Every structure is written in C-alpha cells, then in structure tokens.
Amino acid sequence: MISDNLLVIILFVEIITLVSGEIFSFCFLINCLVHVLVQLSEISIPHYLTATIFSAQSHEIAVFHRNVRHLIMICVTAGICSGLRGCCFGIANMILVKRMRETLYSSLLLQEISFFDGETVGDLTSRLGSDCQQVSRVIGNDLNLIMRNVLQGTGALIYLLILSWPLGVCTLVICSSLAAIMTVYGMYQKKTAKLIQEYAASANEVAQETFSLMRTVRVYGTEKQELKRYNHWLDKLAEVSLRQSAAYGVWNLTFNTLYHATQIIAVLVGGMYILAGHITAEKLTKFILYSEWLIYSTWWVGDNVSSLMQSVGASEKVFQLMDLLPSDQFISEGMALQKLQGHIEFVNVSFQYLSREMVPVLQHINLSVHPGEVVAIVGLSGSGKSTMVNLLLRLYEPTNGQILIDGVPLNELDTMWLRGRIGYVGQEPKLFRMDISSNIKYGCTRNIKQEDVEWAAKLAYAHDFITLLPNGYNTLVDDDLLSGGQKQRIAIARAILRDPTILILDEATSALDAESEHNVKGVLRSVRSDLSSRRTVIVIAHRLSTIQAADRIVVMDGGQIAEMGSHNELLHKNGLYARLTRRQTDAVV
Ligand SMILES: Nc1ncnc2c1ncn2[C@@H]1O[C@H](COP(=O)(O)OP(=O)(O)OP(=O)(O)O)[C@@H](O)[C@H]1O
Q1: Ligand 1 within 6 A of CB of 383
Q2: Each residue's pLDDT tens digit, 218-277
Q3: Boundaries of CATH 1.20.1560.10 in the chain?
Q4: Other CB atoms within 10 A of residue 320 CB
Q5: How far does the centroid of ligand 1 lie from the alpha carbon of residue 387, in Å?
C-alpha cells in the first residue's frame, strides 16, 4: 500500500513536471479553487432543503422565503462553478494527453533501431493510444472525483458530528468498515484489471497480426485457426471478467447492507432521541441526508482510488519510455565534412545483434571502397550482406572495429549530414500513405520542383507507369496499392532525387525477381553514364547477372568475406562465386 501511495505521488510529480508552466497550471489552479466553492455550495443544499420544508410546515413565512432565496443562490453558484470546473478539467486533461503523446512519440522516434527489434508495433501504439488516455484520466477523472468526494465526505462528517455526535460516531464506524472492505476489493480489482489488460492486449495482437497478414490467411485458408487463436484470449478474458463480476456482486451486497444499516440505525437511535426530546425531526432528517452523503462519498473515494491505481499501472511503462535517453546519434554533435568523396572503409569490423548476442553475424570484415567505385556484395541468404549496409547507415554500431568515411570514423561524423548524402533502396521498399510526388520527395531537404521529381522518376524507370495512374504524380498510394517492382522504382527515384554521393541498393530477395534485376541494372547504367556526378555504389545482389558489370564483387560467407574480385577473376578462381553462378545458371536452364 505504501509503495502504491509512493507511485501515485511519483506519477503526480511526473505529470506536473511534464505540463508545468503551461496554461495547464492555470486551469488546474482555477479548477481547485472552484472545486472548494462547489463543494461548499453543494454541501449546504440538504441543510437548506430540510430547513425550507420544515419552515413551511411550521408556517414561518419569512424564514421560508429566506431559505428559498438561499437555496436558489446556492444552486445557481453550484451550477456555474460546476460548469467552470468541468471546462477547466477538460482543458487540463486535453493539454496533458497532447503533451504526453508528443513527449512519448518524440522519445520513441529518437531511440536506437535495436530498441525497435525488442518491441512490438502493437505494444508501442497502445502505449501512445489507450495508455496515455488512461493516465490522463488521473487528472480528468480520478483526482477530480477523489478531491470532490473527500471534500464532500469531510464536510458531511463535520456536519453530522455537530448535529449529533453519538449518531455521527455510529456512521463513522460504518464508513470505516466500508473503507476497509473497499481497500480489499480495490486490491482484487487492481489484480484483475492487470490480467484483463494483458489478455486484451494479447487478443489485439492476434487480430493485428491476422489483419496485416490477411492475404496469407486467405490463401492458406486459416480463418478458423485464426478465430481459434483469437477466441483463446477471449475465453481467458471472459473467465477473469466472470470472477470480477462475482466479486462486484459480493461488493454490492456488502455496500447495500451497510448503507441500509446506517439508515436503520439512524432511524432507530434517532427515533429514540426524538422520543426522549433530545433532537427534532428536522435534525434527524438532515442527519439521514448527510449520512447518505458521507457513505456515498466514501464509496466514490474507494472506487476512484482503485481506478487511480489502474492508471498508475498504465503510467509506469509510459513514463519509463518517456524517460529513455535518445540515441547517441541525436545527442553528440558530429563533424560535417566540406565535401563527401565517398571513400568507405570497413576496418576489422565484427558485429552481433543485441537480441542474439551469442550469434556472430559479421567477423573481421576488412573492405575499402574507393570514391566512384561500384561494389557488389553477394553471398548466400543470411551471410550478413544487409547487416554490412545497416552498419554503414549507422542503424547499428559495430561490436568491434570501425567504419571510416573519407578517413573519418563514422561515429565522429554528423549522422544527419551523412544520411543526407546517402541514397538507400531497401529490399522491400515501403511507401507512405501520401501521393507519389511526396513519396519521391520524402526526406529530401533541398527545394524540389516537380521537374526534378519527374527527372528522378524517369531515371528510375518509374515515370511511364506513374503517368498511367488515374491522377499521375498526385495519385494517393500506400504500401498495398502498388506492385513490389513499382514500389522499388519509386524508392529508387527517392534515392536518386537526393543526388547522393553514396548509393546503396539492396536487391529484392527473390532470386527470380526479374523486374527487380531490371530496375537495379537500370540504375547502375544511369550511374555509369552520368559522368558529371561520381557516386560510390554498393549493391547487394541476389541475381548474379545483375552485377557482372560491377568494378568489384565481394562474396560473403557466414559473416566473413570469402572472395573478392571482378566477375571474370572470380569465375577463374572457381570458388564460391563460381559455384553460385553455376547454380543460378542451372536453375534458369
Ligand atoms: N534485427 C535482427 N536481430 C537479430 N538478428 C538479425 C537481425 N537482422 C538480421 N539478423 C540475423 O543476422 C544474420 C544476417 O542477416 P542479413 O540480413 O544481414 O543477411 P543477408 O545476407 O542480407 O540475407 P538475405 O540475402 O536473405 O537478405 C541472419 O542470421 C539473420 O537472422
């Protein structure tokens, strides 16, 4: 319980730090002041209601009119203040959710790529979506209601003790028992809420995976299997919800019994007091109204505290992610060279992925690529070709050795500056949901005209198919609306438009993808013929016929460089490259 309280305080401090100095503080302050005013007004309503009724009964006309006037004033004040309070809480809540999502999103965007290897997309988006919303409930709902009910309950208790302290003490005992039972029930609720959150997330993950792989599911006819997988989590959810409902039933029974017990005790003891002439019927009526108020306030506080605890649970991971330090690449100020020549050196580079630390992916790679040289990297699947490019793009850092660009260690260069001079086309290029022009211009910082976009598209053999689309370059596309080859051509145009000094092409994996080969060969031809701008090109090729014209071919095997040379030299050597070439020629024949 102590650690729970500590967590609430930490959460509150985090929230205040996050939004301090904003209009938020103003709204929150106004809201607190208005809160006190609303509660003072509302708490006096039962008093004046009873007094009005009893003054009418005893024909005290002047008192009756005064009480009615008071009642109207109080109701109007409470109404206006409630409206103000709701509005301020709404604004404070909106500011909080917006700021949380902004902070979390920018923190996630600046993480190392290896961070994303360990997290699922569903998990991260649910942190941004439902979890941020849940945390904002702390301000918008839980704290608001807790504050309101604590104020109301305290006011009611003071009034009860003033009216009749023996009856007040009886009600206090009942409320304390209620609070103790609520605590136990709240702890149970917290446990089940966590389970429900986990099972619901698992069900979501299954649904998300199925929808994103819908074509595979349809082709393999696994709809029933997927439904079963989803149902598995739904059954678990239903089981926990069933237990939760039973606990809720028991809780309701207890609450009702205690609530009615207060009324019976009040009527019984109060009736005896009236008979003995200690209190009046008016006082007893007020007493019953206020004791109801107290018991309901106790119930609400308990209920909101358990909801607050759920928000605390959701907030832990959100604030943990927000507090992550950005990747070094965004903190350290690297050097920007006057002009990039495009000389790349791998010096004794070794690497393994953090998620599989025991598996060496690259071992002692030594490779020097000269400015303007076209180097092809080939090898069996999984031999580490894409990993070499990942290191060159500084998506990961080498475990050993270093990579030099124009003689400067990669980690001493300004990463943004360097990336602005590299064009990269991945194996399975992805498109953003925007028009084709914007997709080609994506990430290009210089001022681009439509003619430039079309020039790049022509070089990438994309212009012809784009003009055939209904809205040409303005056609809205996303990752599903074009063929793999068309997406690759747009990605090539995107890379060419940057006018990169270093161009990296990762050919589509499918060894039989003739369109991919055609696209990559086309780019290589353009690079060769464009003598005005010399580019260093690294091409990872699966179809060996793609890269016969490369200046040099690097053959990878098990994370090491097995052979290096021109196409003819390697064929002469009769090693791995020759074997791979023979294998592909046989496959075609
Ligand atoms: N993010 C990652 N986390 C852990 N291991 C990875 C990751 N990416 C790749 N690997 C592993 O690293 C090894 C080399 O992968 P890489 O993608 O570099 O091979 P490749 O030669 O490019 O293969 P392909 O020709 O099929 O694209 C493989 O064993 C692969 O399973």
Answers
A1: yes
A2: 878 889 999 999 999 999 999 998 998 898 888 888 888 888 887 788 788 888 888 888
A3: 2-326
A4: 10
A5: 6
382 in contact with ligand 1, CB cutoff 6 A: yes
436 alpha carbon – ligand 1 mean position (Å): 30
Compute CA distances 271 → 52, 96, 168, whole Å: 22, 51, 15
Domain covering 425-499 assigned CATH 3.40.50.300 in the classification: yes
pTM over 0.80: no
Q: Is the CB of 387 under 6 A from ligand 1?
A: yes
Where are the domain boundaries for CATH 3.40.50.300 in the chain? 333-421+502-510+536-589, 425-499
Atom of ligand 1 nearest to the CA of 117: 1
> Could you say which architecture CATH assigns to the domain 333-421+502-510+536-589?
3-Layer(aba) Sandwich (3.40)
Q: Is 583 exposed, middle or buried (0-12, 13-18, 19+ CB in 10 A)?
A: exposed
- Contact indicator for 554, 561 with CB cutoff of 8 Å: yes
Instruction: Name the residue among 542, 583, 547 with its Cα closest to residue 567.
Output: 547
Instruction: Give the number of the atom of ligand 1 that is nearest the alpha carbon of residue 387.
Output: 18
Testing ligand 1's pocket by substitution, the residue of 116, 356, 424 carrying the most ligand atoms inside 8 A of its CB is 356
Give the closest residue to 309 by CA, choosing from 419, 439, 185, 210. Answer: 185
Q: Going by CA atoms, what residue is nearest to atom 12 of ligand 1?
A: 361
Instruction: Name the architecture of domain 2-326.
Output: Up-down Bundle (1.20)
Please check whether residue 405 is in contact with residue 538, taking contact to mean a CB–CB distance below 8 angstroms: no
d(CA 424, CA 430) in angstroms, rounded, equals 12
Q: What is the pLDDT of residues 52-70, one digit of tens each?
A: 888 888 888 888 899 889 8
For ligand 1, atom 7, the nearest C-alpha belongs to 353
* Nearest CA owner, ligand 1 atom 26: 381
* Phi, psi (degrees; rounded to nearest 5) at 91: -65, -45
Could you tell me where the beta strands, DSSP code E, fall in 297-407? 344-351, 362-369, 374-379, 400-405
